[in-house]
Design goal:
Blueprint (H helix, E strand, L loop, with lengths): L1 E2 L3 H12 L1 H7 L5 E7 L6 H17 L2 E2 L2 E9 L4 H13 L5 E4 L3 H14 L3 E3 L14 E3 L4 H14 L4 E7 L2 H17 L2 E2 L3 E3 L7 H9 L4 E5 L7 H8 L5 E5 L5 H11 L3 E4 L15 H15 L7 H19 L8 H12 L4 E2 L4 E2 L15 E6 L2 E4 L2
Parallel strand pairs: 2-4, 2-5, 5-6, 6-7, 8-9, 8-10, 8-11, 11-12, 12-13
Antiparallel strand pairs: 1-4, 3-4, 13-16, 14-15, 16-17
Length: 390
C-alpha cells in the first residue's frame, strides 16, 4: 500500500493529543481521502501501471480542493477481482476513504463497484462498467467511453473503408464480451457482418487455433477485443499466416507494450480513441487540446517520463470529475462523514458538460457512462506512432 503523507493530517494528529474534543469537531478530517486501486502486478499490469502513473499526474495537477488537501492511498489488486473486492473494503472500512477510484480490468472494476454500492461510498471507475444502475441507489460512474460507442465509431470507419465481413477475436472475459456485443449491435446500422466470436485468456501466450478459425471465414478485416500487451497476440498470429486485410481495435490497445510486442504486425491498425492520444495533432479549437497538453506536463513532472498511452488519461479525467464535484460538495458537508459521501455522489452525478482530455462529461442517475461521440477520434499506428485520422 502506498500512502501520500499530508502536513495537514500530521498537524491534526498533533493537535488531537492536546485538544481531542475540539479537533474531532473541527479539523480531524480536514483532508479528503481518496482510495485508488489498480493492477501493478498480474496480467492487467500493462494497463494498471499507466493508470497508476496517471493518478500521480492528477495529484500533481491538483492536490487540494478549496484549501482541503487530498490524501491518496493506493493498493494493488494483482489483476484479481477477489483482491479488488478486499482492497475496496479495506479502503472504506479501515482507511475511511471518501471516494474510490479504480481499477485496471473490467471484472475487478465490477467487483469494486459492488462494494462501493453496498457501503455507500462514491466510486469513479477507470475501466468500463456494464448494465444500468438503480438510480435510487447509484454510487458510481465510469469514465471510459463505453465499448458500444468505441465499436460504433470503429464500425463507421470499417464501412467507409468498404469492409463488410469481419472476424472477431477478443478476451474471454467481460471486456471481450463488451467489444463483441458492441460489434453485433453495429451490424445492422453499419452494414457489416461479424463472422466469428473467438476468445482467449489474458494469460495465454498463443492464439493460433483461434486465428485459424477466424481466417477460415475469409474476413475482409479483423476486430481485436483485447488490451495492452496481450492485445498484440492476434496480430502476430495474423501476420504469421500472411493476412493482408485491415485490422481494427479500440483505445484499449493504445499502450506502449502493445506497440512494442506487436511490432510490424501491428502497423496500420486503426482504433477508436480519446483525443488526448493525438493532442498535438488536434486543431487549436478542439476542447481537449489545451488540457491534454497540461496533463502531459503534469505527467512528465510526476513520473519523469512522457506519457505514451491512453489509460493514464482516464485516471486524470476521473480525478478532475472528483475534484470539481468535491468543490461543490464541500459547501454542504465535511470530509469523512456519510453526509459528505452522499453530497459527493450527488455532485458527481450532477456533472454537466465538463471537458476532460478524453471527453466532455455529463452524468445522470441511472447510467454509468456520460460521454458521446465527441469523446472519440480514429487513430492509426504508423511507424510505431499513433496518427490522427480525421
Amino acid at each position: 500500500m502506498r500512502k501520500i503523507s499530508s502536513s495537514t493530517a500530521l498537524l491534526a494528529s498533533l493537535m488531537a493529543g492536546l485538544l481531542p474534543g475540539l479537533v474531532t469537531a473541527t479539523t480531524a478530517r480536514a483532508d479528503i481521502i481518496v482510495g485508488f486501486v489498480t493492477s501493478l502486478s498480474g496480467p492487467g499490469a500493462s494497463i494498471g501501471i499507466p493508470y497508476q502513473r496517471g493518478i500521480q499526474a492528477a495529484l500533481e495537477y491538483k492536490g487540494e480542493v478549496n484549501g482541503e488537501k487530498i490524501k491518496l492511498i493506493q493498493l494493488d489488486d494483482g489483476s484479481d477481482p477477489s483482491a479488488a473486492t478486499r482492497a475496496a473494503r479495506k479502503l472504506i472500512e479501515e482507511e475511511k476513504v471518501d471516494v474510490l477510484i479504480g481499477t485496471a480490468t473490467a471484472p475487478s472494476t465490477i467487483a469494486m463497484m459492488a462494494v462501493a454500492t453496498e457501503l455507500k461510498v462514491p466510486m469513479i471507475a477507470v475501466s468500463p462498467v456494464t448494465g444500468q444502475p438503480n438510480p435510487e441507489d447509484q454510487w458510481g460512474i465510469s469514465v471510459p467511453q463505453p465499448a458500444s460507442l468505441l465499436v460504433k465509431v470503429v464500425a463507421d470507419r470499417m464501412k467507409r473503408d468498404g469492409m463488410k465481413n469481419i472476424g472477431y477475436i477478443g478476451f474471454s472475459d467481460a471486456w471481450g464480451d463488451l467489444v463483441y456485443n458492441g460489434a453485433k449491435a453495429a451490424e445492422a446500422g453499419e452494414g457489416i457482418k461479424v463472422l466469428t466470436n473467438e476468445r482467449y485468456a489474458r494469460v495465454d501466450t498463443s492464439v493460433t487455433g483461434q486465428i485459424l478459425k477466424v481466417l477460415a471465414t475469409r474476413p475482409d478485416a479483423v476486430l481485436i477485443g483485447g488490451s495492452g500487451t496481450q492485445g498484440a497476440l492476434p496480430l502476430l498470429a495474423l501476420a504469421d499466416r500472411g493476412f493482408k486485410g485491415k485490422t481494427y481495435g479500440t483505445v484499449a490497445l493504445v499502450n506502449p507494450d502493445f506497440v512494442r510486442v506487436g511490432g510490424k504486425a501491428a502497423e496500420g491498425i486503426q482504433v477508436s480513441a480519446g483525443p488526448v492520444i493525438v493532442a498535438e495533432q488536434l486543431p487549436d479549437s478542439h476542447f481537449a487540446k489545451k488540457l491534454s497538453l497540461e496533463f502531459r506536463a503534469a505527467y512528465q513532472k510526476a513520473n519523469n517520463m512522457p506519457t505514451t498511452d491512453g489509460f493514464s488519461a482516464y485516471s486524470f479525467d476521473g480525478w478532475k470529475i472528483f475534484t470539481e464535484a468535491a468543490e461543490r460538495a464541500l459547501k454542504t458537508a465535511k470530509p469523512g462523514t456519510a453526509e459528505f459521501h452522499k453530497a459527493l455522489r450527488d455532485e458527481i452525478l450532477n456533472t454537466r458538460e465538463m471537458p476532460g482530455v478524453h471527453a466532455i462529461y455529463t452524468f445522470k442517475p441511472g447510467a454509468y457512462h456520460g460521454v458521446d461521440e465527441r469523446a472519440l477520434v480514429i487513430v492509426r499506428l504508423v511507424n510505431g506512432a499513433w496518427t490522427y485520422e480525421p
